[in-house]
Structures are given as structure tokens and as C-alpha cells.
Amino acid sequence: MTAPRSISTGMSHLQSRMYAAMEKAQRARQKKREAADALRARQHEYETANLRGRQKQITRARAALEAAQAAYEAAKRNVQLLDDKAEEVVQAQVRAAYM
Quick one: which of 7, 25, 4 has its CA closest to 15? Predict the structure, then answer.
């Protein structure tokens, strides 16, 4: 009787890991969307500053734009990393199901 119980417990643990990994990936995608929104806003601010031709404003807007680009790229990498990790967990669950 203990063998089926341990299999069940193992599958439950894998399912928990799978859901946690998927949830982390979903949160990362949300952060990526937010970073993309911020990037678009900084791009608009930079374009507006350039049109006005005020050097101090342009310099600040460029710095903010570069920071937003870096944040977006980091969010994009994090999404990929967490998606890969979630895929590994799913694959582990599939392998465990067939053992």
C-alpha cells in the first residue's frame, strides 16, 4: 500500500512545482508587459524632448529611455528563463508519469 501512496505524493509534489513554475512565469510576463509600457512612455518623452530641442530635457529623457530599455531587456530574459524552467518541470512530470 505504501508504493501507490509514494507515487501519488511524488506526482502531487511535481504538480505543485509545475503550478509554481507556471505562476512565476506568468508574473514575469506581467512584469515584461509593464516594462514594455514604461519603455513606450519613455520613448514618447524622449521624442517630445527632441522636438522641443531642450538639451537638459533631452539628456534626462535619454537616460530614462536607456534605463527603461535595460529593464525591458532584463524582463524579457527573465521571462525566457522562467518559461524554460517551467518547461523543465513539465517534462519532469511527464517523465515521472511514465515511470
Answer: 7
pLDDT of residue 9: 59
Full residue range of the structural domain in which residue 86 is found: 2-97
27-34: long-range contacts at Cβ-Cβ below 8 A with a sequence spacing of 24 or more? Answer: 28/75, 28/78, 28/79, 28/82, 29/79, 31/75, 31/78, 32/72, 32/75, 32/76, 32/78, 32/79, 34/75
User: Helix count (H) and strand count (E) of the chain?
Assistant: 2, 0
Number of compact structural domains in the chain? 1
Which of 77, 15, 17, 37 has the alpha carbon at shortest distance from 45? 37
pTM strictly above 0.85: no
